[in-house]
Amino acid sequence: MPRSKRKRGGFPWPFKKKSKIILNYADKFHDSTSFGTQEWLAIENIILHPYQKQFLLPVDLDPCQSINEDCESNSTCIKYENSNGETKCVTKDRIQKFEVGTTIVGKNKQKYKIVSSNRLKWLNTFDIAWYYRLLSESTNHTYILFNSGRVIEHKQLSYIYNGLLKSLIQEILQETSEQKIILCGHSMGCVLSLYTGMMIQNENKIFFDSKIVIVGSAPFRFLEKNTTFKNLPNVKVFCFYERQSELSTVIDCYRFQPRASTDITYEPLTYITQDKQTLESSITYEDEFNKDTIGFFTDDCDNKHAWSNYFEVLTKLYPFDVNQGGRRKIHTKKKRKKN
After folding, report:
1. Start-end of H helices in 176-306
2. Which pLDDT value is given to residue 16?
3. Is 297 helix (H, G, I), strand (E, B) or coil?
4. CA-to-CA distance for 263 and 258, rounded, in angstroms?
């Protein structure tokens, strides 16, 4: 078989040959989506919980956390399970519910008020999709967080649009403030963000271009091959990979899901990794991969899909500065003066 048509793991390499993309550090991070990415990272964890589950208010010191056994023997303490399934002893007053009107504190120590929320059940059996609409008290930007969950096909996507997104889009289009609306999420949440943005663009392109920002990570394929929804300046989508050796690169498997689909994912994806030595080189592009070194559809690449991988790398690229309003300026390389 000719080298250009070689298959790996029984699946054809899906990327087309592109010309080499060379961008400096400033080009990669200083764009119209940077502020949205920083705040999204601070609040994404709340949508990882099941719909309207309890959350934990942050504190500097919780006396109950020093109790290892018999947590509930103390009347002020209770066991709390986080989104990772980890259990710890906390003070009862710290546990709150995700309800409209509730103010939460993000990982950047900034406050966000839950303005609205809604959910959709799949054939009245289980929650398939939901969102929280939050208002940032520090920036007045609106953040709409969509849940992650499963790889969905067009039938389910249409179901979610008619049952949940259609009414949300009409609400968004009636927004008259000058502040931005950021659609965001991980995995399925990223796809719902992109799909919602695409439908808004179809209805009102001027509104989409001026008010909407989309940030997210780890989407699967849902766009038709002839789509024009790509290469947009107000959209930033990340995909995690790991270069294990010179002969082995592993990419988040969900990049290629659903397997039998002829659809494509949003382009371009911004590939991030944590196996580089410097931040300046921690980002790359599709054409920089050697197609004969890619591994996918394995347990290893499936593990790359975890939000914890994305959070660890992205918070280094877009770090919080809790002493300066929750956001830190992203430093760039200074250009050398020409003699």
Report:
1. 188-203, 205-211, 299-303
2. 35
3. coil
4. 9
Give, in order, the Cα–Cα distances in Å from 47 to each of 42, 125, 141. 11, 20, 18
Distance in angstroms (rounded) separating the CA atoms of residues 42 and 46: 9
State the distance between the two ends of the chain, measured CA to CA, in whole angstroms: 52
Q: Tokens standing for 154?
A: 């067009």
Q: Which residue has the tokens 């059940």?
A: 121
- Please give the CATH architecture assigned to the domain spanning 16-55+76-317: 3-Layer(aba) Sandwich (3.40)
Closest CA to 82 of 52, 44, 55: 55
Length of the chain: 339
- The answer to whether the predicted template modeling score (pTM) of the entire model surpasses 0.90 is no
The pLDDT of residue 323 = 53
Q: Is there a cis peptide before residue 50, judged by omega within 30 degrees of 0? A: no
Contact status, residue 281 vs residue 326, Cβ threshold 8 Å: no
Which token pair is 138? 């520090």
Rounded to 5 degrees, φ, ψ at 292 are -85, 0
CA atoms of 181 and 135, how far apart (whole Å): 9
Residue 318 CA to residue 104 CA, distance in Å, equals 21
The 10 Å Cβ neighbour count of residue 13 is 17
pLDDT in tens, 26-69: 345 556 788 999 999 999 988 887 786 777 777 778 999 888 77
